[in-house]
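User: Predict the complex.
Assistant: Input components as received:
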Amino acid sequence: MSSHGKAAAVYHPLAINLAASSSATPCENCGARHLGLCDALSDEELAFFSRAAHRMSLPVGKLLLEEGEPAQHFYNVNAGTVRLFKTLQDGRRQITGFASAGHFIGLASSELNVISAEAVEPVRLCRFSRAGLQALSEDYPALERKLLSLAMHELVLNQEQMLLLGRKTALERIASFLLAWARRQEACATGKLPKPNTRLSLALSRSDLADYLGVTIETVSRSLSHLKNDGLIEIPNTHEIILRRPQALENIAEGAG
Amino acid sequence: MSSHGKAAAVYHPLAINLAASSSATPCENCGARHLGLCDALSDEELAFFSRAAHRMSLPVGKLLLEEGEPAQHFYNVNAGTVRLFKTLQDGRRQITGFASAGHFIGLASSELNVISAEAVEPVRLCRFSRAGLQALSEDYPALERKLLSLAMHELVLNQEQMLLLGRKTALERIASFLLAWARRQEACATGKLPKPNTRLSLALSRSDLADYLGVTIETVSRSLSHLKNDGLIEIPNTHEIILRRPQALENIAEGAG
DNA sequence: CTGCCGCAATGATCCATATCAACAATACGC
DNA sequence: GCGTATTGTTGATATGGATCATTGCGGCAG
């Protein structure tokens, strides 16, 4: 009931350019084949699973879930990034998470969607009907088990984020985010500290960052500048950040000193 | 994959004072028999399930989970209230949720506990070893399915709370909390507005409230007074609050106007 | 009944971050 | 490659909520 996927799987050599046999699934060449949900399934299971999937590509800004609409689908992201968010009537927005390759979307829902989701980058994904997936889970208990494991992992991240939103200062939020994002990119399963000079590529805008961390874009900008001036990070360009002193970031993130 | 328990079940007449037969489980008289996880199980399933449970009572303040310790158990609350929280090194605390009768504790964890849990009121609960529950779930798929459903429901609540912590004002937080707490007490499954003059009983201290809502106790106190002065609520005593104008509270909570 | 103790309410002041306002850099259409 | 639009940075000021301080209240031991 634990084991959140093998970190090493990310680096698995992918079978590219295979002549497609009649039995081959489109999954074989998918960047997410050895991530998240799909990694939990055998080739045979995946073949069934794949038949229930509707593959699609979406341009930037396209909405794939809308808060308050009936919840009809799950999605599994194959490539790109999706932001998940809620909004208040006057337009204030809280981004509750980002979904990238291997991430499963839709567990946070009841009869209706409780969040909206839209593409930050161009996105490729597999769509499943809820009913279809439920039917599949009757035959493949591994599916339901893996979904539970994914949900539990998401709950863990949520706890962390609530601590951040409720109790951390702006600087602590930025430091926490940088480390979390680095860990996510490295797919370093253990909570180990990223190595010095880890280079983050950040598809998100400052505005996404702000709405994820519960501050304004100006505060994001200032906090990043602050960390840069103190030599903890470097910012070669808007969408790249180099972590010079991860340990120092960690100290800030955890509210030490 | 949805249906979060029948609201009406709360009012089920409970079988009291039955002469215990040899086959009876202690569950028959449990206040949580028709709530949460246990409600999803048949009597027969419950009998097996019950054998894996270790029943216990805890005094106020007793820690039942500690952040960072190996995650060994799940708990199901039978009576009383537990607070779930994370802390920063300098003592700042964020309460991420409260668990009362029928609530299941431990889904938000990996190898280690990511949160601590302690009794707010005297608590009675059933404890399960993780391994034991996993074994049980092999034979009873309904168990895993219900756990997934519980986890999904928790994810929904988490999204709501992140919006609150990241983007709402102090007054909006208090108004949101009062409505959410009322819905929880009424076990009104649908998101309907509580009726005017709904009386909330609040075992929590102002400090619990503050750490749950990401503000200080002074701000909680001031916001409550503010709502009281505007006639939206009444506060007969510290641990009781009457909702005079739920619709007005809802407007505040949703950031309308 | 009285005095103590812990919690809650209220008031005074301060500060971190929001808001408002230029300005700079980058991306983008033609 | 040029000009415009968009996004990000930095500065000045305002403010919501934190912090510090005082007072009030309710429970409880003696």
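The longest strand of chain B covers residues 73-79.
Let me know if you want any component modeled separately.
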